Structures are given as structure tokens and as C-alpha cells.
Amino acid sequence: MNKNQSKKMFEKASQVIPGGVNSPVRAFRSVGSEPLFISSAHGARVTDVDGNEFIDFVCSWGPMIAGHAHPEIITAVKETAAKGTSFGAPTPNEITLAELVVEAVPSIEKVRLVNSGTEATMSAIRLARGFTGKNIVVKFDGCYHGHADSFLVKAGSGVATLGIPGSPGVPEDVVKNTISIGYNDIETLEKTLLDDSLDIACLIMEPVAGNMGCVIPDRAFLERVRSLTRERGIVLIFDEVITGFRLAYGGAQEYFGVTPDMTCLGKIIGGGLPVGAYGGRAEIMDQIAPDGPVYQAGTLSGNPLAMAAGIATLKILQKPGFYEALNEKSAECAGRLQEIGEKSGLAVQLNHIGSLMTAFFTDQKVVDFDSAMSADTDRYGEHFRNMLSQGVYLAPSQFEVAFISSAHGPEELETLAKMTEWSFKKLAEK
Q: Can you list the domains of the chain with their CATH numbers?
């Protein structure tokens, strides 16, 4: 496979961009490779600058649930762009997208639109602190909530991928107000939340962890999180940047039937353009400026292009049978991959829910950060390189999820299965 142009571009980028990339996992370091530079994408496939085509299971890390360059989304963006790209003033489409979000997500009565998932989560915890008058944030080991200071305590995503336990530049005074505990650990959850000495403002969690790989919550654990936070007056925040409009139209909270106090969104609601949102009960959201004292602002918040793309995307998702079809083919795909893994003789665990999945190279059942970190990252790197050589583009990290979109058809999923079987056979022979 010719990668000359990608190699040249990476060398050039490294001269002017730290690490040659604008988000660390894109560097491909944990999989022993160098990044591809993508020139175009359509449906379930991406094409790099060397003309190589790949079946894409990264899907821009989740937003492309309807596939790349969906004609309805492209049309909406083009029509909007022709009228102007930013005004720094309210627009009708902001209302439309906000209404769609409020109608869809059980926990959201009012929503504030921002520009990224990180912006949504950092704003949400500020609001929770302002609403409660308390300081401490509780999170779970391996859950990544963006790159704001307080979230880089035992975080997942690129922090886990690169083996960085935290980050220089994060003051101890910030870290001391963040407590990170084990995912799916009810005993530690109860011990922490019932500790009267702790001034806990909120608990933030991924209802399905997607940034240490796909880790599914035990239902009893999730329900205990909800009951304890409600009993203790702790604001429960679901980070549904990944799961929002992915597991179901109403997100993970609809899927599991567990409603938080606040929800953070991103990715899908922008149709591939930069976007974020946080929302929740009106009494909490009314504390945001200009109605309340908790300040948050953004020059490009509610950007017309992102609003148009988001509206078009959600209208696609509203079509009858969308999720049924997506989840059915995802389940069939996961079942086949599971069977391939079991027959391979490799130590591999497939975690799957909805259209999200991760193959962990470990003999342990992956239920939390510690068990996720038992995975053999070198073996995953080999698997990644094997698959890439055969035109299948997986996440360049063991600790991320694979996404299936509505654009993935029988041909793409058959190729995924066949190439996985081939790669696993190669790995088993070593």
C-alpha cells in the first residue's frame, strides 16, 4: 500500500503542529504506525491522499452515524453557508435544534448549545457547582470527559492510550476537588457518596464508557448511581457525547430507562461539524447567565452550519426503523466477530452494545478501567496494522470504540468479518 503522500504530509505537519496532529490519538503512535491523511469520504468509506480507500469504522469518532457526505446533510450545510457562516447573534435554527434535543432526551427541559463535548462537560460541572454551592466532582476511572483540567484524573481516551496518568499543567488545587472511583463498583460508589465529609456537587459519568474501549454498565450499578445521587442531593450528569442519539434516539438514558439531572451531548448533534450541548432540569439550567449567576459564553455557539447539519442529521434519525435496522445489523456483526474470536484461540473479548463495540486483547472480562488496561496493546497494534493493510480502518487505539453507521452495508460488514478472521489467524500463528 502506497502511503508516500501521507508520510510527506505528516513530516510537513510535524514542523508546524505539535506531534503532527491536532488530537493525540490521531498520531497512530500506540498502534506502531503513522497517520493517514484523509482527502475525502462517502458513505462508509474514506479515501486518503494517496488514493487508498478504506472501510471506515472510526466514523469521525462517532458523529457520522448516517455515513459520510450524506446528501441531506450536505445540502443543508450548502444552503446555510450561502446565507453566511456566522453572525454572533441568535438564529432560527438554534431554536429548531434545541427543540429537537428537548423533545428527544428525557432529562433535558432546557439546553445550552456550545462548540465541543469538552466545552459541554466543563460547563455542566461549573453549573452543577453553582447550583449546589458545593465543590467536589466525582467521576469514574477510565472515563474521559474532555480535556478540561479536572477531568484528566484517571482519564481514558488518548490519556490512557499514551500511558499518561494525568497531565502536567493541571494544578493540584484543581485535582483535589476531583475524586475518581472504579466503574461498575457499587461498594466504592456507596462509600464515596455516603461520606458526609465530602462536599460533592455532582457525579459525571459515561452511561456506557466509550473512552477506555466499550465498557457496559451493570444495570444494578447504573440504577444505584441514580438512587444514591438523588438521595444525597448530588447532581447526576450523563456524558452522552458518544451515546447521545447513538444507542437510541433519546440516548443511553432512554436505552436503560435511567434519567440523570443533566446531560452533555456532542458529535451526532452536529452532523460532523464542531458542536456540543448541555441541558437538564429547568431549575438547574435557569442558573446560567443571563438568567442566573453561572457564567458561560461562546462566540461560535449555535453556529449556523453546525445547527443546519445537526437538524438534518436528527431528521434522518427520526425516520421509522432507523435504529432497529442499525442495531440489528450491528448485533449480527458483533455476533459473527465474537464467534471468530472464540474460534481463533486468541485471548480476546468483544464488548458490544447498540452500534458500539471494542475487541479487547485480554482473557479477562472487561468491566472497568483495570480490566480494560489488562489488554495487550501491542497485539491490538498488530491487528490494527493487519486490518489497515486490507482496507479496513479501525480506531488507532485499543481504548476506543468501533462505530457502525447506517451506511455500512452487507459488503462492508462481510469484509470486516473476513479480514478479522484473517488477522486473528495471523496473530495466533505467532
A: 4-69+320-428 (3.90.1150.10), 71-317 (3.40.640.10)
